[in-house]
Amino acid sequence: MEPGYYVVLAAVLFTIGAVGVLIRRNAIVLFMCIELMLNAGNLALVTFSRINGTLDGQIMAFFVMVVAAAEVVIGLAIIMSIFRTRRSASVDDANLLKY
Amino acid sequence: MNGFTIATPAQVLAIDVRLPDLDYAAMAPMLVLFGAACLGVLVDAFAPRQSRHTIQFALSFIALTVALLAVIREARVGSRELTADVALAIDGPTLFLQGTLAVLGIVALLLVGERALEKGGPFVSQAAIPVGSEADRRQAREEGATEVFPLTLFALSGMMLFVAANDLLTMFVALEVFSLPLYLLCALARRRRLVSQEAALKYFLLGAFASAFFIFGMALLYGFAGTVSFGGIHDAALLATTSPLLLFTGLAMVAVGLLFKIAAVPFHVWTPDVYQGAPTSVTAFMAACTKVAAFGGLLRVLYVAFDRARWDIEPVIGTIAILTMLVGAILAVTQTDIKRLLAYSSIANAGYLLVGALAFSKEGLSSAMFYLAAYGFTVIAAFAVITLVRDDDGEATHLSRWAGLGREAPLVAGVFTFLMLAFAGIPLTSGFTSKFAVFGAALGVGEAWPVALVIVGVVTSMILAFPYLRVVVMMWLSEPAEQSPTVAIPGAFTSAALMVGVLATLLLGVFPSPVLDLADRAAEFIR
What we know:
- In chain A, α1 (4-23) packs antiparallel against α2 and α2 (27-52) runs antiparallel to α3 (56-86).
- Chain A has helices at 4-23, 27-52, 56-86.
- Chain A is 78% helix and 0% strand.
């Protein structure tokens, strides 16, 4: 199997995630799309690690996973605290700050 | 696709594993702050409630002072080295920016620790309690959370790591280490909690979005160069025979992540909302320290990893700089809230800093570093004044409420006038010397792009002077409103922060040469 295809797959996943962030409204779904983008980055790192013949990329993927986990903790805490008050996780409802 | 060669597992395993050398003295500032932050978490868990604030403040203050001394010691030794297996670069810009971060961190910490202005301080007691509930009304009388101190220290240790990071992975980890505490700090305001949480949500979602771009860019650059160290990327760009597609796509995506943090247009949309919604002391911290850290990282990426691609990136980042200056200056004119006004002003200032960065010369680097230090002091002092102008509902940030403030509190209004003049770049203030240094460095290059940038910079400075002067005119010449806000008497901490900020703004305007010389001597990256 050509490793180049995995780079293309990673780019496609990243694009799906980025488009999702731009068009979806629910903060949780937005957040899942961001996770998809991070995982696309991981796939690209591992693929390039295979192509380059160095292990660095695979180690970097671990770093990205750990950081993503920390990000989930912070992100869900913030989304939860808003949801408890507003009973909604829609980012369109968070509209107190403008202009 | 057939051009790729695939390593066999045996080749992959044949890489010898060795432990990197760690220079603990050079890493001391980051380690001290990180250790103190961990200690702070324990203090919050075990110390009795009434003494927590004192212990936490003293711990943070001592940690920052020790970190500053460690930076000064390292600077006196004059070390220039790559440590931790080229993951960290301890060189002039690193030490200058780490020292700046430590000093600005101490000044911002004074604002964060202030409790004289409001009973229990500006932070909520328990952020997990839903807004408007019975428990929320009960906790309004309780003391504010002291987690803010370890969070601030975590953020500062991440920032110090960020300006020292010499590969993309370290830079990414540092980016998250300083961003995640900031997201939380934004959500911790005691008053207007919904607005504060909304600011945190916006900052978090957009920040995570930007760091996803950074990761993917890092992956592409790793694919291009086979390494993520800046020196390695530089060499690969120099010697590359393959298509530079991966290089430029990767660079663009990494740049998105970094330009988001410095709030350059079109990645600036979070800035006004977050600056307005976050507690004002946190806004001051973000405006000063995040800018220093993010620009330190951007300068290193541009100067160390991509200086060979200079001709290709100059038009793109130049356009971004022009847009940043224009949008920041024009939208600042239309603002009616003082915190939003300063947010747009900070966007425009990011544009001026980009002008210095794009000079791609030693002068450009040193002037940008001087600008960061000078701007940091002024902006912290300005936000310190904003914490003083209050009414029953907390801070009165709407501009109309500031009308006639000069009659009620001439001293505070006078200080704010001075700071506004410094932002506007009037001579004898640091705003003038720093803009002069940055524009002078760009003109010194004598090429088309930097000159165009300077012209836009001067024009937008004139536009930007209008909103600043409008505030000044409003404070001194307008009639006070019916119910004008009161100006609180600053506590010792806020007074100290204000004094340091104003003195630095004045001294860097009148005698800038010591700091300019320092920045000049420091302005050399190692690769």
